[in-house]
Fold:
Amino acid sequence: MSESKLKRVDLIFGEYSSVKFKVLADTLKRSNEDILEDLTESGLKGRGGAGFPTAIKWKYAAETPSKEKYVICNADEGEPGTFKDREILTRVPRKVFSGMAICGKVIGAQKGFIYLRGEYQFLMPELKRELEQYNEHMSKMGFDFPIEIVLGSGAYICGEESALFESMEGYRGEPRNKPPFPTTYGYMGKPTVINNVETFVNVVMIMRLGPIQFKLLGTSDSRGSKVFSVSGDTPIPGIYELELGMPLEKFVEEFGDGDTKAVQVGGAAGFCVPRKKFTETVIGFEGVPTGGSMMLFNSSRSMYNVLHNYLEFFEEESCGQCTPCRVGCQQLRKGIVAVKKGDKQSLYLDQLMKLAESMKISAKCGLGQSVANSFSSIVYNFREEMIY
Amino acid sequence: MSKKINLTIDGIQVSVDEGTTILDAASKLNIHIPTLCYHEDLCVAGNCRVCVVEQENSRTLPAACAMPVAEGMLIHTNSGKVRVARKHIVELLLSEHNADCTKCYKNGICELQSLASQMLTGDHMFLDLVPDKRYTIDRFNSAIIKDDSRCIRCQRCVRTCEELQSVSALGVAYRGNKMKISTFFEHPLFEVVCTNCGQCVNRCPTGALIERNYVDQVWDAIYDTSKHVVVQTAPAVRIALGETLGFAPGKIVTGKMVTALKRLGFDAVLDTDFAADLTIIEEGHELLERLKSALVDKDPRVALPMATSCSPGWVKFLEHTFPELLPNLSTCKSPQQMFGALVKTYYAKKKKLDPKNVVSVSIMPCTAKKFEADRPEMRSSGYKDVDYVLTTRELAIMITQAGLEFEKLPDSHFDSIMGASTGAAVIFGTTGGVMEAAIRTVYELVTGRDVPFEDLNITPVRGTEGEVREATLLITKTKPEFRFLEGVELKCVVANGLAYAKQVMQNVKDGTASYHFIEIMACPGGCLGGGGQPIPTNKEIRAKRKEAIYKEDMGMPLRKSHDNPDVQEIYKDFLVKPLGHKSHELLHTHYTPRKRY
Amino acid sequence: MTANEHLIRDLVEKHGTNRTALIPILQGVVETKNFISDTDMTEIAKELDLSAAQVFGTATFYSFLSTEPLGKYVIRVCKTITCDMHGKRTIIQTIEEMLKIKVGETTPNKKFSLLETNCLGWCHEGPAMLINEKPFTGLTHERVHDIISDYISKL
Structure:
């Protein structure tokens, strides 16, 4: 067992360089083309869950002409089972600021914002102290890129980028129609790069180590390492930085309690993988992608309860504007209750599976589209538990 | 010229301008994609998702109303995937909706119902969520009823209230399964800043926002033989009523409407146009008096510019939003209320009727008129001056109920007295009309000559939707008693839609604009686009109605309010003179400030 | 001017009158008095030139911007699956017994409100809760008993 241990990586949480903001200072001296080339070469994909290539996003924003551009760090970490961004912002905030400033330089933005979820308000005093130091250093370096923290107020959907803009602008956090995309029409209608907390740290790591070394980690589809939030039925819950592209079986061997029956990869919006599929499942963009949430369930858990919990979550956290998500979530939750109670025949589950499929393709934003992930994978793999 | 984009929809190639949506591109190919939250007058929401289509190589189905075309796009509007998704969406909406259609005011004209019927819903695909929702119905308002159990949360009303009217009495509140359309703190409509304009009613696809109807009360009055039921019809009704009764938009149906009203059993069919002309005389003199006080007497208390007061939605808006500018509002009542006050005094006396046995009904393109008729200020005859206000739509219902084949009805004329009309009164129905009618009269009063425009058509003040129209008129060669206006440039401004009204009044408040006379209509396009007009409404339909109004004006033998014989007679017989004692008692009023918050 | 009007005037001075100021102002009100009253909202609407319904609509979207009165200390217990699996129910029961209120209620002395909330981001240390903005994790019957007792003694 000891030789099968997953390789631990120590990039994200690795110590700061001995000279304060050294990577940032060095990178700011480089040309934008150079930086973008390194990013492209590294193959870095967004760490929020969707996995959009970071270099392309930055390039689009850089190419959109505008006097006003913004860099936003998405720290509205609301996905059940995810807590890595809190850890990153607690332990290595400077790397986050540096990544944002590098982005600001590359795309030509004047200002950065960190949208911090309301549940993490307690981080504010420390983050503000850190920001002061950052600002001091920036003025010493002669590069002006102020960063401000905007506090959320308790709404999962604000993690969706366009909903986040709406929220920052003082509105209800309702996702916008896309296109236009943030790189052309983002915060205040200006070109905006919005990235996850971890993505910005990854950028700094790539700048420090170079793309070659970064690429040594992970697989061809999933470059680099990833911070995982491990919770549920595990003797060692917590934050782990691991290589991407790992087989789920190995993960369970290391983190499970010996009786793992399912792993929910990617939170309530992610997929449920049952024991029989552990061997064939790879964690990464080529397999099951995740923003980092890994929830383990052992055989004492009712997957009906798990699903019910997720659906209740979505029912409340949907913004409510689009039909498939607002009404669909209610129907899915009440539907499984009705089947469990015997008010509806078990065949009704098939009807609900079709509904979930419609939600996946017709909802307005990623939230509504992703409800089907957990619903379909749990109902498909644990159908009996839904009925009896 | 904008760039052309080539794409394929349902196997047919089409080339459209860059920025066109899939919805519009499909409509060019005569493919009708169903919609619910989409409305031509409003910004795109893309939230009902009924208009989803399949785009090849896309994981998801984009909403046709919100998705711009792209080069080489391959779109399928009726694939299996699309049909299933759409049916699911409509079924989901129905599961949240009180689908007791036979008990709904919009039965037969509901957009959700017609989609449901198209999609052959009805097999209770999903659970009924209605019993768990604590839906409420706001019936406390005299003009508009808001029934949340019929609401599909498309937000057309919210966008209307914000974008067209800048009132935002309605907003979206709460989140997720609790999300709803709500007033501030869920207060009833009568307690908030709602102006009763009814633009939301015009755009609500279901029965969630409807006018309070008085159809049965009016029938009861007609059946009551002890009552003499008088009906007046507003200028904008005759050019729109036909739309609900088999005619295309823009058809003038004045003669048929009068016949229909007589056949319904009204004892006298009279014309609000008469009161519109009367309004012009009173308001014209009021303007001249204010100008004189300002220019000759240098009275600092006189409020200029003077603003028109015929649109009750606008009046309530001002009461809420700019209460400090209420002195600028003309003291003239609206034509409806002038008419109402005269029906139970002058008319009753002339016809030797006891006013307590006279029931006064008005047919209006407006929902706010219902509220106006209920105002405590509007009882100067000693009775409620206007007993029942029906919208154009309600009149259409009555005509249908009576089994009249409207299209085949012969024409007939309004009864007398108070049935005579002029072109000036007719144009009250469109934005800029009151201004034009007033200038036709005031200019002649002041100079003794016709306005210096061909065929009396004062085109510079003819406003259009989506703009504030400013115009000036130089006054020269005045009659001796109006010497103080010699060489004065009369500055006028015309706005329609409360969003534009707000702009104008903000400028007045800030002192950044100097006008003499302001005409404001609460609704887009003026009364022709009123909240009581036939549904659907859009720019094209309103443009047709407008054309009809100007055509009707041109066809009238009399085109100036002061030429109206019934108006001339009433001054001789009853009112004595404009702004006289009787006028003040019956035709003028004052409004009171209301809270904006 | 009432104390409330003062509060809002100060917040407006700090955050400005643009729409972007709305949520920070609402947050400021909540920070001071734990909920936003109808008069607070009309006052804010006036200052920002918004309709009252717009302010209400925005406030009611966010879980932390309560428009109903809440106590001085708002306890939000995480109800998401891993906290639920690790004994959320016991935590709730303990608090309910100590404060003699049910979830969704406020103590008669207006000191405590008990609410459930969605994922707080402490899944590895569940069950977790917030008291106002302060997180408490790894909760057990005993620990939560001590924490609440501590708050009660501070009153």
Summary: The beta strands of chain C are 73-78, 112-117, 129-131, 134-136. Chain C has seven helices and four strands.
